[in-house]
Write a structure and sequence with these properties.
Bound molecules: pyridoxal-5'-phosphate
Number of helices: 15
Distance between the termini: 59 Å
Largest sheet: 7 strands, mixed
Radius of gyration: 22 Å
Length: 398
């Protein structure tokens, strides 16, 4: 009982309608508008011959074991694949399970990887540290110019991993240029698309091979699940599903799949509000006398505004600011004075969050050697006036 793709093909391909209906068939579940949670590990067969068909993968309609496929997870995977414009998606128990599965599906011992230096910390650690076990090395580049990637190429380069925009200072990479360089050199490409969500950016359209998300962030949207997803073409995804998915086994639990499905139904409307609130706050902060710099791809004077126009259909609501008085003490004082912003990591949920981040100087292109304290803000779905008033009173205290 896989999602019925034939009847889905009659649906208009608009994003909002796919969020609501794609991959779903209430007729299969007594007309229930919300599909059941198949909270079970295994599926039994009427006879041994049917079991054989399931295990040989001959009949994809047959389920055998939830580590391989589960009807609830199938629905969310079909929907996310469609939203990203990909053929298949595979859900994982966290964003990092998805990131590591995608990377491992593209490398073998002795290979070389290229990645922007601003990539998400644990992804950086996996590439720079963990993969050393397999004699895999990684060159970290600035990544704002295609030459950065060209110069880092080696005969053994097998993967370019992108995260655009990055998630603390929001640097972007030109996906079309990088994927064309990669294709000429038979190199795989992965893009972490967590910041934009498929509502604002679809990396597969620019030739990227695999998209990954921390679905813990905007896709889930309610700060109540950990989840990840990898999206790509059927061939790559089949291999990844049976190897990194089934053998390493970090798949998504059916209940979390069901919550992720619920989150996706409101993705467009949440992202629209995140965009409005994010732009409003970023613009106001950039005019505030106590703010030295706002890092946010949506601002018209962003140094990469050309890439924003090329790649992003809109902007989300994770941004950073550097205070004019950017000592650790001032940054902490500012954050501690906020009333509506929780102090914590993560983002993409309904709620506003703030946290101090110490960024290496070279990430910000400044000519000093000392790392810089910035404040990362996630602008939630609260009233934007309330949030702006809160930020102003906290800035007054610095
Ligand atoms: C949070 C995050 C991840 C990891 O996701 P988890 O769900 O926390 O494992 C990966 N990439 C980016 C950009 C993130 O912000």
């Amino acid at each position: 009982m896989k999602p019925d793709n034939e009847s889905n093909s009659e649906l208009p391909p608009s994003f909002e309608t796919m969020c609501a209906h794609y991959g779903e068939d209430p007729a299969q579940h007594h007309g229930a508008v919300i599909p059941p949670i198949y909270q079970n590990s295994l599926f039994t067969f009427p006879d041994c011959a049917t079991r054989e068909l399931a295990y040989d993968g001959v009949d994809e309609e047959l389920y055998s074991y939830t580590r391989l496929t589960n009807p609830t997870t199938d629905i969310v995977e079909a929907k996310i694949a469609a939203l990203e414009g990909g053929e298949k998606a595979r859900c994982f128990a966290s964003g990092m399970a998805a990131v590591t599965a995608a990377i491992l599906s593209c490398v073998k011992a002795g290979d070389h990887v290229i990645c922007p230096q601003t990539v998400y910390g644990p992804t950086h650690s996996f590439l720079a540290g963990y993969l050393k076990k397999f004699n895999i090395t990684c060159t970290f580049v600035d990544g704002c110019r295609i030459q950065d990637f060209e110069q880092a190429l080696r005969p053994e380069t097998s993967l370019i991993f992108l995260e655009t925009p990055s998630s603390s200072i929001f640097k972007q990479q030109d996906m079309e240029a990088v994927s064309s360089l990669a294709k000429q050199n038979k190199i795989s490409t992965i893009c972490d698309n967590s910041w934009a969500s498929p509502y604002f950016q679809r990396p597969l359209q620019f030739g990227i091979d695999l998209v990954v998300h921390s679905a813990t962030k905007y896709l889930g949207g309610h700060s109540d699940i950990m989840a990840g997803v990898v999206i790509g073409d059927a061939k790559r995804m089949r291999r990844l599903t049976f190897q990194e998915g089934c053998l390493i086994g970090g798949i998504l639990d059916p209940f979390a799949s069901w919550l992720l499905l619920r989150g996706l139904r409101t993705l467009p409307i949440r992202m629209d509000r995140h965009q409005t609130n994010g732009m409003r706050i970023a613009t106001a902060l950039s005019d505030h006398p106590k703010v030295a710099k706002v890092f946010f791809p949506g601002l018209p004077d962003d140094p990469q505004a050309d890439l924003t126009a090329k790649q992003l259909r809109g902007t989300s609501s994770l941004l950073s600011i550097q205070l004019k008085s950017s000592s650790k003490e001032s940054t902490y004082k500012f954050i501690d004075s906020l009333k509506y912003f929780g102090i914590g990591c993560s983002w993409g949920g309904f709620e506003s969050l703030a946290q101090p981040v110490l960024v290496p100087a070279q990430h910000i292109d400044i000519s000093q050697n000392d790392p810089v304290w910035i404040t990362r803000l996630h602008i939630g779905l609260e009233n934007a006036d309330d949030l702006w008033n809160d930020l102003q009173q906290a800035l007054d205290k610095v």
